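Translate structure to sequence.
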């Protein structure tokens, strides 16, 4: 079975952006945690929960999200997840208390899980076999780079603009990703019918 899509590299850009941003936000709190704790009068235990709550939510929902994608379509779940992630990110930036922040981090992580669970299936359905390894490698690399950049970016942003900036900085990129996904992604049924052009 052959497959291709005329917008396959744009699709990869959108999917890769999601992998990058969601992992940036997974780790961006680490270096800035002391300032975050100070800003919301957090204890160290609650401060650590602001990190782990995101990771737990984004991990626990991966398998269910993959199943939901099989049922209602990868495009819908991807856009839904990225939208929830973006809303959660904005809410984190305006959080007024430690408990509220943890709740918003759970929302943020839940959205990340939905988007990440559909990333690989989208790539597999979009790229021909001879380019699949390259596409998956690019996506995986973006995920690792996001993990590396997150703590560094968090430290710089908090020092210059305060702790709320570590959440707001990714929002424009997330909005770009949502709009791009709505335009270029195809539903499961359409993707399965794509034929390789070159």
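Result:
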């Amino acid at each position: 079975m052959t497959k291709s899509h005329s917008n396959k590299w744009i699709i990869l850009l959108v999917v890769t952006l999601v992998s990058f941003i969601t992992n940036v936000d997974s780790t961006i709190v680490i270096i800035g945690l002391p300032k975050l704790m100070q800003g919301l009068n957090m204890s160290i235990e609650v401060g650590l929960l602001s990190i782990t709550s995101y990771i737990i939510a984004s991990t626990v929902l991966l398998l269910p999200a993959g199943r939901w994608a099989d049922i209602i379509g990868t495009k819908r779940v991807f856009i839904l997840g990225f939208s929830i992630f973006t809303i959660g990110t904005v809410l984190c930036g305006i959080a007024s208390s430690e408990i509220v922040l943890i709740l918003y981090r759970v929302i943020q992580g839940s959205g990340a899980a939905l988007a990440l669970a559909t990333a690989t299936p989208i790539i597999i359905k979009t790229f021909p076999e001879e380019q699949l390894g390259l596409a998956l490698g690019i996506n995986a690399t973006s995920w690792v780079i996001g993990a590396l950049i997150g703590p560094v970016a968090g430290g710089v942003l908090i020092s210059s603009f305060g702790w709320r900036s570590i959440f707001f900085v990714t929002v424009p990129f997330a909005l770009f990703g949502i709009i791009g996904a709505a335009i270029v992604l195809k539903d499961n049924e359409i993707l399965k019918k794509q034929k390789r052009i070159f």
